[in-house]
């Protein structure tokens, strides 16, 4: 029997696992997909919010600000991309100044540091591509951008290195309460545990409602995005927000940690919790709304569009042990600013379990993790020496992103390593460039085949039935 089973290997579940690994505990994360970061956490804006938007005094506000304050140091400890680039909320009319002032006042009450309201002249000096009709803007220097894959994978790898077990392709089907804990019925057999952490994203209500009389409802709120080529990455240097509305923070324009430009999201509540399709209407909305605040966005340089789902539950986080089901801890309704809040969410969940289980500190805990070596960070002498010692680092596989065979091998061999094309992509960016994997996929598949000792027929895009090779042309002629 496990002490703790966490359902979901997204950023909240992985952060909880990492913080829990600081203690002596028999813990496991179960994930229905073939990899971490395969649900809500894989498709979002990658924004580290300052914390001025959440209601004053709310758990969301507290965890947002705390997570923001933790992110820079955590990025150094766990070696994932993060940049404190700052954010601007654009006000286009004098009539909207009360709304901007309200955001400023709320941010100050939430503990956000160094907030300022800038004049039109100051805004255009910072960001020349802002709409020249701008009246003022709220400037938050503590806002930032992060690689969502990098954060999620780093947390999970570090948790695993410190003793937390991960079971992939393991879907929880039902939960039975027993005297000393729970039995989680999965497609791979029953799992017994004393405590459950429900970090299942848009499916968190499903597991909550299996055990509790007090029902919750998670709505899948779809957001569509456009990602632009790196040649457009400097169009703005800060994250540009609209004044928030009832459906959220609106369409943003922001650089990414890897030098692209991201535009989006839309905000549409949908019934299908797997509904990740993009739509013509959604992309038209992005184009229309993004141009309100930022002029001359080079949308002809879009290299891909995608959609993600947010787990909406009445605009608040639910992180607590259920009153009517002792041992079951919800980590539900984690929508924006969930990515920012994740490090603080992990601490909160671990603190609950520490008290309940009377956990002792893990004397062998290692809080440092090194990411995949990027040869582009080396000088020419260091890189030549690396290639001399490990020739795979001299073999370019992804020409758009200049990703080498050595990096892909590292991505596969490291803790919780990649097992699919998307797994390699999220860890190395091979396939994320201008051609969107048009050239590098066959070579990446050959490396996966060799390293995992699989048949080419078993290599998938993202696990499950997403096989790439389905037959041999010669055999069908």
From TrEMBL:
<dbReference type="Pfam" id="PF04324">
    <property type="entry name" value="Fer2_BFD"/>
</dbReference>
<feature type="domain" description="FAD dependent oxidoreductase">
    <location>
        <begin position="3"/>
        <end position="351"/>
    </location>
</feature>
<dbReference type="InterPro" id="IPR006076">
    <property type="entry name" value="FAD-dep_OxRdtase"/>
</dbReference>
<dbReference type="Pfam" id="PF01266">
    <property type="entry name" value="DAO"/>
</dbReference>
<dbReference type="GO" id="GO:0003973">
    <property type="term" value="F:(S)-2-hydroxy-acid oxidase activity"/>
</dbReference>
<feature type="domain" description="BFD-like [2Fe-2S]-binding">
    <location>
        <begin position="396"/>
        <end position="449"/>
    </location>
</feature>
<dbReference type="InterPro" id="IPR007419">
    <property type="entry name" value="BFD-like_2Fe2S-bd_dom"/>
</dbReference>
<dbReference type="InterPro" id="IPR041854">
    <property type="entry name" value="BFD-like_2Fe2S-bd_dom_sf"/>
</dbReference>
<keyword id="KW-0560">Oxidoreductase</keyword>
<protein>
    <submittedName>
        <fullName>L-2-hydroxyglutarate oxidase LhgO</fullName>
        <ecNumber>1.1.3.15</ecNumber>
    </submittedName>
</protein>
<dbReference type="InterPro" id="IPR052745">
    <property type="entry name" value="G3P_Oxidase/Oxidoreductase"/>
</dbReference>
<dbReference type="InterPro" id="IPR036188">
    <property type="entry name" value="FAD/NAD-bd_sf"/>
</dbReference>
């Amino acid at each position: 029997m496990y002490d703790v089973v966490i359902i979901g290997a997204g950023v909240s579940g992985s952060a909880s696992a990492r913080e829990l690994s600081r203690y002596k505990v028999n813990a496991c994360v179960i994930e229905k997909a073939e990899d971490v970061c395969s649900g809500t956490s894989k498709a979002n804006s990658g924004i580290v919010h300052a914390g001025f938007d959440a209601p004053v005094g709310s758990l969301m506000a507290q965890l947002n600000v705390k997570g923001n304050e933790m992110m820079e140091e955590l990025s150094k400890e766990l070696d994932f991309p993060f940049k404190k680039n700052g954010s601007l909320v654009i006000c286009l009319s004098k009539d909207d100044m009360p709304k901007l002032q309200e955001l400023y006042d709320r941010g100050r009450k939430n503990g956000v540091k160094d907030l300022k309201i800038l004049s039109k002249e100051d805004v255009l000096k910072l960001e020349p591509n802002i709409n020249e009709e701008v009246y003022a803007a709220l400037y938050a220097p503590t806002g930032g951008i992060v690689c969502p894959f990098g954060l999620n994978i780093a947390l999970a790898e570090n948790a695993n290195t410190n003793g937390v077990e991960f079971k992939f392709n393991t879907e929880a089907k039902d939960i039975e309460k027993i005297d000393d804990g729970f039995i989680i019925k999965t497609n791979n057999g029953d799992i017994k545990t004393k405590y459950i952490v429900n970090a299942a994203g848009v499916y968190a209500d499903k597991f909550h409602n299996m055990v509790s009389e007090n029902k919750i409802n998670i709505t899948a709120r779809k957001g569509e995005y456009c990602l632009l080529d790196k040649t457009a990455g400097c169009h703005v240097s800060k994250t540009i927000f609209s004044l928030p509305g009832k459906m959220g923070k609106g369409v943003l324009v922001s650089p990414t940690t890897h030098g692209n430009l991201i535009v989006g999201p839309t905000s549409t509540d949908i019934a299908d919790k797997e509904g990740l399709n993009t739509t013509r209407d959604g992309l038209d909305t992005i184009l229309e709304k993004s141009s309100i605040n930022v002029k001359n966005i080079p949308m002809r340089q879009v290299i891909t569009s995608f959609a993600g789902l947010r787990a909406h539950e009445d605009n608040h986080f639910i992180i607590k042990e259920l009153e009517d089901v002792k041992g079951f801890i919800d980590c539900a309704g984690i929508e924006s600013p969930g990515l920012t809040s994740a490090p603080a969410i992990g601490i909160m969940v671990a603190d609950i379990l520490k008290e309940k289980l009377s956990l002792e500190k893990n004397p062998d805990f290692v809080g440092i993790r090194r990411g995949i070596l990027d040869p582009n960070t080396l000088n020419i002498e260091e890189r030549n020496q690396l290639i001399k010692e490990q020739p795979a680092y001299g073999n370019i596989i992804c020409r758009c992103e200049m990703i080498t065979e050595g990096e892909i091998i590292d991505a596969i061999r490291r803790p919780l390593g990649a097992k699919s094309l998307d797994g390699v992509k999220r860890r190395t960016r091979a396939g994320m460039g201008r051609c969107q994997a048009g050239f590098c996929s066959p070579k990446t598949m050959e490396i996966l085949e060799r390293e995992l000792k699989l048949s080419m027929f078993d290599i998938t895009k993202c696990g499950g039935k997403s096989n790439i090779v389905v037959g041999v042309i010669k055999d069908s002629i």
